[in-house]
Amino acid sequence: MAIQKVLGLETEYGIIIRGSPDPNPIAASSALINAYVADLARKVAWDFEDETPGKDARGFAREDAMPPEVETHLVNAVLTNGARYYVDHAHPEYSTPECATPLSAVRYDKAGERILARSVEAAARILPPGQTIVVLKNNSDGKGNSYGTHENYLMDRSVPFARIVQYVMPHFISRQVYTGAGKVGTEASSTGGIDVTFQLTQRADFFEEEVGLETTLKRPIVNTRDEPHCDAQKYRRLHVIVGDANLSEVACFLKVGATALVLSMIEDDWFAKAGDRDYTLANPVQAMRRVSYDMSLHRPLELADGRTMSALEMQWEHFDLARKFTEERGFDSIGGGEGGQQLLDRWERVLTGLESDPMSLANQLDWVAKYRVVDGYRERHGLTWRDPKLAAMDLQYHDVRPEKSLYARVGMEKLLDEADIRTAMTEPPSDTRAYFRGRCLQRWPASIAAANWDSLVFDLGADPLRRVPMMEPLRGTAAHVDTLLEGVSSPAELLERLGS
Length: 500
Prior knowledge:
Elements: E1 7-12, E2 14-18, H1 25-40, E3 44-46, E4 76-78, E5 84-88, E6 91-95, H2 102-124, E7 132-136, E8 149-156, H3 161-174, H4 176-179, E9 183-184, E10 198-199, E11 207-212, E12 219-223, E13 235-240, H5 249-267, H6 270-273, H7 284-293, E14 301-302, E15 308-309, H8 311-329, H9 337-356, H10 366-381, H11 388-397, H12 418-424, H13 434-443, E16 448-452, E17 455-458, E18 466-469, H14 478-486, H15 491-498
Parallel strand pairs: 3-16, 11-12
Antiparallel strand pairs: 1-6, 1-8, 2-7, 3-4, 4-5, 5-6, 8-13, 9-10, 14-15, 16-17, 17-18
Helix pairs in contact: 1-2, 2-5, 2-12, 3-5, 3-7, 3-8, 5-8, 5-9, 8-9, 10-11
């Protein structure tokens, strides 16, 4: 049976420095994060001991592979909600804590938006007069540079990686019809003769390979980075780099929820059991862009076996398989029945809306909402799609400041209570190991030398430092450790009780 899909999202935010004679995005990102952490009056650093970004899931690395560098000298903090907040290259990045359900992942992703908005406020108090920092939850600066929104899914290590690639790639390509954040124009060097005025996604322009290790150059549709951040004998962490940064709660919920279900079906070999449902595309990289450029949602894609199928048809096929899968196997792999049924219902409703009238989803999907507001402005003012005002509106949609954001003004449907999102800024999820990490950071920040996903390093004032391993993502929960934490009064006592 498919294992539970512990989830996480990593978002690199766009950053703009205004009013500076020498704008430096790395320095601005550091100032942003340091200002927020200073407001919290506590800082615990990230532990790089287990970082292996060059390890490839296929068991090798090509000679020309370019695994990302680990930048240990830049600001890198762990928050009390269990998240990581740091500078990644030239961007502030927020990585959610481990989440046990798709809706929990959305909640902690939205908490990240609030943290970035609070960081902008904190940085404004220390910047020189006349300087401001603008932060955008998007994936492209409009000048040929893209930055990522990565998803992570816990999977059974025994599942052949080739099977994952075969069945997940068509889903990644076709799911763009609801995961796209929308984009004015294109930054691709070639569009195959298509005049792209507006497209579904921000990321499709930047993918050049089907499978590979890189994340910044020659980006692959299926990424092979093999850092499980847990017991490597039992698990893998599928590192997904093809998605857009979603402000829409509905789009984000579908993005992680539908993908978690598809991966569950892959683990159980459901595609083969359901009659060898193979949707392998003849040219996946080309198809990725064709889907993004297709505002009609009905352009046929050529499959490897000679058939054709649109992205929307392909998603209906995946939905049908998921419905039958959950009827037989249930929703345990995505955290339970109530949220699972909510996901299936929403998936079906969104596909139905896309099929009948995509504009009916303007309050649910990012690309539809953005297209509606930008195209409405264009028509009212008689502008062409090449007008720079429309590109500026595209960016403004993603501003994390509610008073500046176009997203905040278009009446998007909410799945979460604002109070719950605010709580998630400081409190960890109770149903993963992030709970233990977050609670320890709340109680004993001065005694924790460093932290990462699978361990905490305590400093009790005498050598040696003491490491507490956390190799099981679904242990260290409130149910596992609340009694233990309530029964100790110091980190030394905690470590004694743990035998560490």
